[in-house]
Amino acid sequence: MSSQSVTLNAFQDQVLRLPEEVDVFLGGGRAGGKSFTLALLALRHVEQYGPAARILYVRRTYKGLADFELLTRELFGKAYGQAARYNGAEHVWRFPNGAYMELGQLETPGDYSKYQGRSFTLLMADEIGQFNTPDLLDTLRSNLRGPANVPIRVVLAANPGGPGHQWIAKRYVFRGSPWAIFHEEKSKRDWVHAPSTFEGNEFIDRAQYREQLEAACHSDPELLRAWINGDWAVSRGAYFASVLDEERNAIEPWSEIPALNGCRWDTYLAHDFGSTAPSATYLIAQSPGATGPDGQYYPRDSLVLVDELATAKPDRPNDGLGWTVPILAEEILGMCKRWDVRAQGVADDAIFARSGHAAGSIADEFTRMGVHFRPAQKADRISGWTRMRRLLADAGKPDVPGLYISRTCRYFWETLPYLGRDMRRVEDVDTTGADHAADAVRYGCLRQAHTTSISPLRL
Questions:
Q1: CA–CA distance, 4 with 78 (Å, rounded to integer)
Q2: Which candidate among 26, 311, 432, 439 keeps its CA 20 to 30 Å from the CA of 80?
Q3: Are the C-beta atoms of residues 286 and 264 closer than 8 Å to each other?
Q4: How far apart are CA 439 and CA 280, in angstroms?
Q5: Where is average pLDDT lowest: 30-39, 74-83, 350-359?
Q6: Extents of the domains making up the chain
Q7: d(Cα 331, Cα 371) in Å, to the nearest integer?
Q8: Contact 172, 27 (CB under 8 A)
Q9: Helix (H, G, I), strand (E, B) or coil at 332
């Protein structure tokens, strides 16, 4: 190995001092040096265990590997010169002492097949917040095997705010104090949460980087706090963080649809269809400007999510139950019967597309079963989110309409508060997350636009 030295920041030094028998979650803010720390851990593993070292580093996509590949070329080139060789086609490093490191991609269960049956002594996964569930990473752990004298290990890294925010925070962050060892039941292993922030990384222009983050999050202080401080307590997620507040938006369950001078509130359904993915259907009541059965006054044109039908598997909010239209329609009719309302409303335009079969569209199937949908008002996604965010933000104000959600709408409360932003289009929701409830509510808010006008969002 070359005699050239590698300079560490305090965070990297502290991670390298952790016992190798302990798995590590690198979970701080942006630009804290997590990726370089992963490369340093790989380099040390190569040096210590030679030909027994078998390392796998994964990202969700091959495109995401590009930055880490450049980083390893710099670090391993400094350490070994031309003696360490990288095969760009195979994404494989081979070291002069016989060690091996592969940079891989893991996005779907089918991608796992290329790792099945293979053994690795060190598994590393970067940007795991892009995984909306831990399932693929848990499966990959089965590939950890090595000689008795080589400790096997998993090291994961993520920033707060992505689709996987909720499960990551629950599993690795809120289990104890930072840098303290805790036992994680799923893996049956001891772990350490090692947080970092860009303020502790003296190898970047920190003042300039802060300005970049502030510019990117000028309307989202919660996301800015997560990125700067590595604050996983921003569990409201990035997208609705500044407008969704349980104290303002959550209401106690209603017992009936209220009436005003003998005339019931306007009611309709808002539906997002799914089979493999969950479907979400909401019964929405639009206020005429009156008091609800809970004694709370709802300004005119406020929307109340009274009830919910969601077909997600328990603890798997992005997986549907596989219900067919007849089964789903029967359950929707049952919900409407309980509330004595008509089974009609709005849904995503996609269900009105003709498939070319005699049965017609999905909407036609619903109609034959007695559930009547029409397309939600035409608008681009961003306009719909803006309208929905405005209603959420205005809940609780005495003179403007707001959006209120019953506590019985469990799927809404389990998913929507944790939805992250699409980092390539920050004004949109990250569609890899469990966005099915959010989509259904967005359709409901667009339907409401037929009867009222909502001012632009200024938060």
A1: 6
A2: 26
A3: no
A4: 8
A5: 350-359
A6: 10-229, 246-448
A7: 10
A8: yes
A9: helix
Q: Which amino acid makes up residue 137?
A: L
Residue 22 phi, psi dihedral angles, 5° rounding: -100, 130
Residue 68: both structure tokens together: 């880490």
CB 352 within 8 A of CB 375: yes
DSSP 3-state assignment of 296?
coil
E strand segments, 47-117: 54-59, 85-87, 92-94, 100-105
Q: Which residues of 19-56 are buried (b: 16+ CB within 10 A; e: fewer)?
A: ebebbbbbbbbbbbbbbbbbbbbbbebbeebeebbbbb
pLDDT digits (tens, 9 = 90+) for 121-162: 999 999 998 888 899 999 999 999 989 899 999 999 998 877
How far apart are alpha carbons 236 and 198 in whole angstroms?
Answer: 22
Sign of torsion over alpha carbons 378, 380, 386, 392 = positive
Secondary-structure class of domain 246-448 per CATH: alpha beta
213: exposed, middle or buried (Cβ count in 10 Å: 0-12, 13-18, 19+): middle
Is residue 458 over pLDDT 50?
A: no
Q: What is the pTM of this model?
A: 0.59
The span from the CA of 322 to the CA of 274, in Å, is 8
- DSSP string spanning 387-426? HHHHHHHHTT-SSS--EEEETT-HHHHHHGGG--EETTEE
How far, in Å, CA of 289 to CA of 302, rounded? 8
From CA 378, how far away is CA 382, in angstroms rounded? 12
DSSP character at residue 352:
G
Tell me the C-alpha distance between 134 and 183, whole Å. Answer: 17
Q: Are 51 and 121 contacting, i.e. CB atoms less than 8 angstroms apart?
A: no
Q: What angle do CA 437, 442, 444 make, to 5 degrees?
A: 100
CATH of 10-229 among 3.40.50.150, 3.40.50.300, 2.10.110.10, 3.60.10.10: 3.40.50.300
Residue 344: count other Cβ atoms within 10 Å of its Cβ. Answer: 15
pLDDT score at 459: 35
Secondary structure (3-state) at 151: coil
Q: Using alpha carbons only, give the angle 222, 210, 61 rounded to the nearest 5 degrees.
A: 75
Structure tokens at 111: 């991608």
Q: What is the mean pLDDT of the chain?
A: 86
Specify whether the CB–CB gap between 240 and 282 falls below 8 A.
Answer: no
Interacting residues of 195 by C-beta distance below 8 A, sequence separation 6+: 26, 27, 28, 29, 32, 178, 230
